[in-house]
Amino acid sequence: MTDTQFKQDQEFFMDPQRCIGCHACEMACAECETNGQIPMIHVDYVDRYTTVQTSVQVCMHCEDPTCAKVCPADAITRDEFGVVHTAKTDRCIACANCVMACPFGVPKKIETTQLMMKCNLCYDRTSAGRKPMCATVCPSGALWYGTREKMRELRPNSTPVNHFQFGMQSVKTKVNIMMPKGATKLVVD
């Protein structure tokens, strides 16, 4: 793999309003050989009692990942391409600090393996210039992988946002969430 293969202008975009809850992304993710048939992406119901609205949950690949900062075993790393990887199996002690610390609620402790696992942006595919599995099967375009310019063309009334404010914590991510045009960051109190 060369640096130019991965450093292309391809980005991951997530548009929660387009999620139709079909779970195709979960099934495609589970087919990925590196996950051991466990999906690293999750479809959640916003409020199952009052609406059928769903939202897809994928690792945001933070520039300064909180999950890695709170890991006492140094099992979680972010590489030079900005991908935050699943905990290293030989280092993870299954303490679940990362699960509790992530502002996006992404890492999951897989009980059967006693390991933290999460989306690694299909590193085996994206590092070779291919799309992540979930983005190849999403029928509604809620998950999309491509250039920022093409996304602007496809969604002229939306803005990709990758800067989030959680109380006092400011988080910048590799993954973009589509917001109404003009939004620059998402603030969660």
Main attributes?
7 helices, 5-stranded mixed β-sheet, Alpha-Beta Plaits, disordered N terminus, alpha/beta, globular, 9 strands, 189 residues
Going by CATH, the architecture would be 2-Layer Sandwich
- How many separate structural domains? 1
Secondary structure: helix percent = 10-25%
Average pLDDT value? 86
Task: Give a structural overview.
The chain is α/β, with parallel strands linked by helices and 189 residues long. It is built from seven helices and nine strands, in the order αβαββααββααβαβββ. The longest helix has 8 residues, at 24-31.
Secondary structure topology:
Blueprint (H helix, E strand, L loop, with lengths): L2 H4 L3 E5 L9 H8 L10 E4 L8 E4 L8 H4 L27 H5 L6 E3 L4 E3 L5 H4 L6 H5 L5 E5 H7 L3 E9 L2 E12 L5 E3 L1
Parallel strand pairs: 1-8, 7-9
Antiparallel strand pairs: 1-6, 2-3, 4-5, 7-8
Summarize, please.
The chain contains seven helices and nine strands. With 189 residues, it is of the alpha/beta class.
